[in-house]
Write a structure and sequence with these properties.
five-stranded antiparallel sheet; 2 helices
Amino acid sequence: MNAMAIGHAELYIYPEKVTPHDRISSPQRIDVVGTQELLEVLVSMPAETSFSVLLVINDCVVGNGKYFMTHETVTILHEYGACVGFLVKPLTLLREARQEHQRRYTSQDHVQQ
């Protein structure tokens, strides 16, 4: 984490169903300081994962949220303070990345047949 950053997001990840190829296979905490880092963590989560987010600015928690991710969507279970709407943009980017991956995967299947 950048020592000069005044804020970060702490993600507490609790995978519920994992497969051998999942990069995150056990409960853990991951700190991120930017949208790109956050998106990379979301992409690496197993399909069925509960996770919490604490937003921290100057060592003070300014928001928290609890979520559940599936293949299709992320359900917002709770959001408070600065976490209200915090994941909207990253989740939109994640959905677009998944749709693009699915289109490419489907196109490759058609080409191989």
